[in-house]
Amino acid sequence: MLRDAGCKQRVIVHCCTVGAVADEMLKNIKADRPLVMAGSLLHDIGRSVDNGIMHAIVGSEMIGKMGFPAELVEIVKKHTGAGLDEADVEELGLPPGDYMPRTIEEKVVAHADNLVSDNLVVGHRHAVEKLRNKGAFRGADRMESLHWELSKLYGMDLDVISDIIGESPKLKWISR
Ligand SMILES: [Fe+2]
Questions:
Q1: Would you kindly state where each structural domain of the chain is located, as residue ranges?
Q2: Rg of the Cα trace of the chain?
Q3: What pTM value is reported for the model?
Q4: Which residues, in sequence order, are bridge partners of residue 81?
Q5: How far, in Å, is the centroid of ligand 1 from the Cα of 87?
Q6: How confident is the model at residue 35, as a pLDDT?
Q7: How far is the CA of 22 from the centre of ligand 1 (A)?
Q8: 163 CA to middle of ligand 1, Å?
Q9: Phi–psi pair at 39, nearest 5 degrees
Q10: Please, what is the Cα angle at 46 between 44 and 50, to 5 degrees?
């Protein structure tokens, strides 16, 4: 689907790496597995059209038009960082709406993405610092708390995932 949508190989490898991280999270976190896996693998489908802040919205619309369930549409829409609050939405000029991950599936996909930088599995501080350096302090704090919320459910600091699966994990879906 990513290929058909016109995603570059780099985006496809990124999505599959996020899938590998989410798959590891689900070893200890209870969530709807097919939904989380579909969400991780498709979260950046909108990058085939737009590489900026709009890609999550564009992607969610694509998924909706393809006839996928609303839960999947919402996962894609809400995957930016640890979500965007009302002030972010206004600042970024996004169409009004709810961009905060609220279900466990939405949270797992958003945060699995935070633990992947391009094609590498990294610790959460990488993404948190990136936001702080941009001045996005609320977003950085939100990401930090999402990290610890999910780490608690996982039973360990999620930063161990890059040690468990490796920073370039073997991908079930494609070869790198
Ligand atoms: Fe994304």
A1: 2-164
A2: 15
A3: 0.97
A4: 83
A5: 20
A6: 98
A7: 14
A8: 23
A9: -65, -45
A10: 115
Mean pLDDT of 166-172: 96
> Which of these CATH numbers, 2.30.170, 1.10.10, 3.40.50, 1.10.3210, describes 2-164?
1.10.3210
CA of 112 to the centre of ligand 1 (A): 11
Question: How many Å lie between the centroid of ligand 1 and the Cα of residue 44?
Answer: 5
Cβ atoms of residues 113 and 127 within 8 Å: no
pLDDT score, position 131? 97
pLDDT for 175 equals: 74
Start-end of H helices in 26-156? 33-42, 55-65, 70-77, 86-92, 104-114, 124-133, 137-154
* Separation CA 84–CA 57 (nearest Å): 12
Residue 10 Cα to ligand 1 midpoint, Å, equals 13
pLDDT in tens, 26-71: 999 999 999 999 999 999 999 999 999 999 999 999 999 999 999 9
Residue 99, beta-bridge partner list: 84
Residues 112 and 16: their CA atoms lie apart, in Å, by 11
Q: How far is the CA of 11 from the centre of ligand 1 (A)?
A: 9
Residues with CB under 5 A from ligand 1 (ion): 44
Task: Give me ligand 1 centre to Cα 79, in Å.
Answer: 6
